[in-house]
Amino acid sequence: MGDLAKIFKAYDVRGVVPDELDEPIAEAVGAAFVDVTGATSLVVTRDMRASGVALAGAFIRGATGRGADVIDTGLGSTDLLYYASGSLDLPGVMFTASHNPARYNGLKMCHAGAVPVGADTGLTAVRDRAAELLASELLAPGLEPGATRGSVTEKDLLQGYAAHLRGLVDLSAIRPLRVVVDAGNAMGGHTVPAVFDGLPIEVTPLFFELDGTFPNHEANPLEPENLVDLQRAVIETGADLGLAFDGDADRCWVIDERGRSVSPSAVTALVAARELAKHPGAKIIHNLITSQGVPEIVREHGGVPVRTRVGHSFIKAEMAATGAVFGGEHSAHYYFRDFWFADSGMLAAMHVLAALGEQASPLSEVVAAYSRYHASGEINSTVADQAAALTRVRETFGGRGSFDELDGLTVSGSGWWFNLRASNTEPLLRLNTEAADEGKMTAIRDEVLAVVRS
């Protein structure tokens, strides 16, 4: 039996199967989810991991054992779950470990309307209730005395999901585009064919076969080595662009026609400009380590940039509070008011395709207008005493720029800035730095790293 405190994270549940996450735990979490949320009906979806069938089945037993009816959508992406939760106005659970290796699985949960369930919005209570059920063995035989088991209905929502996205971004009139898509043997291989069906898009598929062992490479496009196959294929086929999805296909990485990565900040700025054309004066959310170019471009297009901490729960909460139409993160998560304030890598990809297909220039020229600064990318340093390292950095840069501590330490100087923040789960400090001049960015990056690692 696993340790629930270990696998329940700030935003989801994730652990090694079966050592940390097994069927009894999944069943207990299913019962606890119903007990905590009071749900009478809910939606369950899963990705392609081999353990997903058994774990989702156990969760469903736990949920129906508390009297809740379950709509089982079978295979789907995380944003398909959000579509299901939003369109049906039901709580939902997705079985996935996102980009983690094959031996992992987990759960992402949401309230009705795709409202996230995090540590402060029910996840801790679900953990504690599941622990009670496991300790007291109330789940055997699965029903409380006198309870009536809920029903299970299987429902395929893939076509409805695809139609909904096509209704949000119309690609029917774009010029024909050739696109290489690397699904990483994960859920993009399930959703891309449905979404792109009938559109003027010629897809060259890479690794569309669903295989939770990830035989070709991990489905994590944030790691450069996982983009090599896609970059090569874009160049070899003469494609207009490449798209890479992560394990549960809620994140999307973009490659231009030259085989070069398009930064998520540039994608954020591009999509923000398109959303502001539809919603003049609207608010756009960006986290504090996206490029400084994002708030600049938002203002230039008449919008109001809103800066937040890193993390999807902060983005979603701020979007809901402010009514923002769009939000973007450095991690290639993109959030849309028109999609229940939830994130969808597919929807962001469709905006990029629309921006490219509505004019004649190559993608590298299109995104050049949204790429203004040189960035280091996120660099991790293993640090035993994070607080001491942060103190050394404060002392080193005292008087050289403005400081703020919205999330870690951000220091802003003339034409440069950096953010240094601690990991919540590991003894790491994460550095992001950016400057108008590449030499300046490199110098600031190296100086901060030397202080941190001293």
UniProtKB/TrEMBL annotation:
<feature type="domain" description="Alpha-D-phosphohexomutase alpha/beta/alpha">
    <location>
        <begin position="269"/>
        <end position="373"/>
    </location>
</feature>
<dbReference type="InterPro" id="IPR005846">
    <property type="entry name" value="A-D-PHexomutase_a/b/a-III"/>
</dbReference>
<dbReference type="InterPro" id="IPR005844">
    <property type="entry name" value="A-D-PHexomutase_a/b/a-I"/>
</dbReference>
<keyword id="KW-0479">Metal-binding</keyword>
<keyword id="KW-0460">Magnesium</keyword>
<dbReference type="Pfam" id="PF02879">
    <property type="entry name" value="PGM_PMM_II"/>
</dbReference>
<keyword id="KW-0413">Isomerase</keyword>
<dbReference type="InterPro" id="IPR036900">
    <property type="entry name" value="A-D-PHexomutase_C_sf"/>
</dbReference>
<feature type="domain" description="Alpha-D-phosphohexomutase C-terminal">
    <location>
        <begin position="378"/>
        <end position="450"/>
    </location>
</feature>
<dbReference type="Pfam" id="PF02878">
    <property type="entry name" value="PGM_PMM_I"/>
</dbReference>
<comment type="similarity">
    <text>Belongs to the phosphohexose mutase family.</text>
</comment>
<dbReference type="GO" id="GO:0005975">
    <property type="term" value="P:carbohydrate metabolic process"/>
</dbReference>
<dbReference type="InterPro" id="IPR005843">
    <property type="entry name" value="A-D-PHexomutase_C"/>
</dbReference>
<feature type="domain" description="Alpha-D-phosphohexomutase alpha/beta/alpha">
    <location>
        <begin position="160"/>
        <end position="259"/>
    </location>
</feature>
<dbReference type="InterPro" id="IPR016055">
    <property type="entry name" value="A-D-PHexomutase_a/b/a-I/II/III"/>
</dbReference>
<dbReference type="InterPro" id="IPR005841">
    <property type="entry name" value="Alpha-D-phosphohexomutase_SF"/>
</dbReference>
<keyword id="KW-0597">Phosphoprotein</keyword>
<protein>
    <submittedName>
        <fullName>Phosphomannomutase</fullName>
        <ecNumber>5.4.2.8</ecNumber>
    </submittedName>
</protein>
<dbReference type="InterPro" id="IPR005845">
    <property type="entry name" value="A-D-PHexomutase_a/b/a-II"/>
</dbReference>
<dbReference type="Pfam" id="PF02880">
    <property type="entry name" value="PGM_PMM_III"/>
</dbReference>
<dbReference type="GO" id="GO:0004615">
    <property type="term" value="F:phosphomannomutase activity"/>
</dbReference>
<feature type="domain" description="Alpha-D-phosphohexomutase alpha/beta/alpha">
    <location>
        <begin position="6"/>
        <end position="121"/>
    </location>
</feature>
<dbReference type="Pfam" id="PF00408">
    <property type="entry name" value="PGM_PMM_IV"/>
</dbReference>
<dbReference type="GO" id="GO:0046872">
    <property type="term" value="F:metal ion binding"/>
</dbReference>
